[in-house]
Design a protein that fits this description.
This protein has 423 residues and is mainly α. The chain has two domains: 224 residues, no CATH class; 144 residues, no CATH class. It is built from 20 helices and three strands. A three-stranded parallel β-sheet has the order 2-1-3, sandwiched between helices. The two termini are 35 Å apart.
Length: 423
Amino acid sequence: MIETKPKLGVAILERPLLRVLETLWEGPVAPDNLDAIELAIRAFLVSPVLIASRVQDSQWGTAWEDVVEDPSKESIENDEAFRDSLLDYEFSDPKVAHPYTTISSDESDFLKSLVLKEIEPQALEALPRWIKRNGEAYAYLDAWYDGYAEKECENRARLMYGYRDELLYEDELEKLDRDHLYAHPLFHLGPANHANYLVGCHRAGLTVYGISPITKICATHIFSKWPDYLFKTLGEEYKRASEELRGPGMGVTLPPLTALLLSRARTRDDIPVTLRDLREEYTEARDELWSMLSEMWFAPTCEDQLKILRQLSNAASSLFVAAFPERFDALGLAISATDLLTLTVSSTLSTIREHFNPGARVGAISFASKLAKDLRLHLLGSHHILKRHFTEDELKEFGTGRLCWAFFFVLSGLPNNAIQPRE
């Protein structure tokens, strides 16, 4: 296991996020979970040190209070990130204490007020109207709080996941009383304690990655913008381009890092190894990135901070264009004698400069430069990626079932067995 040191570049990943990432190779993958999978891959590429959250899959367990009281103590109960996977070796030992700063009572009170104010209306709005029994509502809220996609939350509600045990109260199987919902821990101090834990991690320099409503609330109001902002424009522009390129039989497009990982992996079983190798390839680049971030946050003057911020922001906004640059017609850019005589050469040079600017902006940040190059060299089309790795049932979820693919092959002129889905 990697030894944890309290420094910038340490990421803490919440357990439900790891469970969702694992579906990428274990299956089944749900389209609604693609953003969460993308977030987890970002953490792998950009974070020198990875830690699995001390909070286990259920935040309502008896260990919850111990976790909140002092996460800096050693633990004998925490599981490995993936429970016996080669990727576990990319994480710090889960039993070893991790960096944590206890927040002040004033900040704790503020968090309590903020969380309780936001979590209750969000939870009540999320709860589907078709739910009729207490057990269904409780199971849905458990899954929703952990950040699972709506479909998974509804599946767990129908099964009353975790609430069919005969030792549980009978009223949990009875008709839903909306007022009775407030017996669920979500409406008490559990979320506020969860927020205290995450913010204490953030104060110690950790970057928090998660999909729970609490993580999203903290990200909006408290957490740092960087390094995640580096991927923001890339994700938006890639999604926009993918939607414009989407052909017949394609219901969902893959995010850029997920598409890159699946393009590099030869088979689905190879995905964990490919993710590990990809992470290793970015070691030097991410160390340089964190050196720049540290310099930006702790520079002695505002001018010095803004100079680095501009470099990072320019790289972030230019990543997509640098990865997929336009090809200019050389004749169209030629400087003619007429240009020289009419003094229009400056506009031509300006056009050339604007064309090459994205590459120069990205080149200033080695991590962004490497990522742009990898996307340009390795990225396959979404049709081929999905067909290579996903089962027929999963393809249907993505809107790419057999009938859709048959239509695609007819239009493309390829034989219908050109690429077979994974069994």
